[in-house]
Design goal:
The complex is a heterodimer of chains A (85) and B (235).
Chain A lengths: L2 H53 E2 L3 H23 L2
Chain B lengths: L6 H21 L9 H4 L1 H4 L11 E3 L5 E2 L8 E5 L7 H16 L11 H28 L1 E5 L2 E9 L2 E8 L3 E7 L3 H6 L1 E8 L5 E8 L1 H21 L4
Antiparallel strand pairs in B: 1-3, 3-4, 4-5, 5-6, 7-8, 8-9
Helix pairs in contact in B: 4-5
The chains are: A mainly alpha (85), B alpha+beta (235).
């Protein structure tokens, strides 16, 4: 194989690697933003559950509050997981 | 001797009256001498206090209050939309849960590395959970309440918009129940429209169970209000 041919093969590999890195980076950015937005929604949902519970008080309210916190906790954990993906 | 002339009943009634009056003296507020709903409502007499918080027709619900409720005001009936009306989002949620399995043969995300495909799947199910939570909260907290004083419409139009309307029973002028269609007839739910002389002239209780019973109850409450005025039980 000539030096030129070796250079061409290496160049193709570098291009493929760079492209792959760029795509990976974009995908990670997309997922971080998406999960971050969902984390914001989960936080708003916990606040809204709190307002709703004060508006209509029932014996089911504590369970809904717990569900809201679990939902927010899961969203937070998944956001942190995506950060280190 | 009929029970109405028995000494025990007189003592009970007078105890109720004295309690009400002593409470009124302490609070210094305008008040009323009020009978229990079972005494004047044939509809409510058929029901025991409801302890299940997930009911869409909860008569005399236990441990239930709302934020503008007055101290001596009792919740007689809590209504929500009939569970049948929620089937649409339930089936949608089931479809969304099964969608990844159905589309697994199509390999839509094959261009992504495996870890991102897994992240997309996790994100998908997170969205489905959020959708189900919002739909349930919307059903649970959009409620219609009938107390011995008022009708109250609690409306959360989205997660961030709240509207609470109420009208005194005194101001109700007309009550109309509409049950149309096969589904409503089979499952006995319908829409109740209440015309009032209040600021909000019409209340609509949409797709609530047993609309005929609700209408009868409101009429009984109206009669009781008029009876109270005639008998001078409103102080």
């Amino acid at each position: 194989m000539t030096v030129l041919q070796i250079g061409m093969v290496l160049g193709e590999q570098i291009d493929t690697t760079s492209l792959s890195m760029v795509v990976d980076g974009l995908l990670k950015l997309f997922f971080v933003l998406a999960f971050g937005l969902y984390l914001g929604f989960a936080f708003i949902a916990t606040r809204q559950i709190s307002i709703m519970r004060k508006t209509l008080v029932t014996s089911f309210s504590p369970i809904l509050r717990l569900l809201g916190y679990i939902h927010f906790g899961v969203a937070l954990l998944l956001f942190l997981w995506v950060l280190f993906l | 001797m009929p029970d109405i002339f028995s000494g025990d009943q007189l003592l009970t009634n007078s105890a109720t009256t004295e309690d009400t009056q002593s409470t009124n003296e302490q609070s210094g507020e305008l008040s009323r001498v009020r009978r229990h709903v079972d005494e004047y409502s044939e509809v409510m007499r058929d029901f025991l206090p409801e302890s299940n918080p997930l009911q869409s027709f909860a008569a005399k619900p236990v441990n239930t209050q709302f934020d503008s409720q007055m101290r001596d005001e009792r919740v007689i009936l809590l209504l929500r939309q009939h569970p049948i009306t929620q089937l649409k989002w339930v089936f949608t949620a089931i479809g969304l849960i099964l969608a990844p399995f159905l589309f697994s043969y199509v390999s839509l995300l094959s261009f992504m590395p495996d870890r991102f495909q897994f992240a997309a799947l996790v994100g998908w199910y997170l969205l489905v959970i959020g959708f189900m939570l919002e739909a349930f909260l919307s059903w649970f907290y959009n409620a219609y309440i009938i107390t011995d004083e008022r009708v109250v419409d609690i409306d959360f139009q989205s997660l961030i918009f709240k509207n609470i309307s109420s009208a005194k029973i005194d101001n109700i002028e007309d009550v109309t129940a509409t049950t149309g269609g096969a589904l409503r007839s089979v499952f006995n739910f319908g829409t109740i429209k209440i015309q009032t002389a209040a600021a909000q002239t019409e209340f609509e209780f949409a797709d609530v169970p047993q609309p005929a019973r609700v209408t009868t109850l409101i009429n009984e409450l109206l009669l009781e209000e008029e009876r109270e005025k005639l008998e001078g039980r409103v102080n």
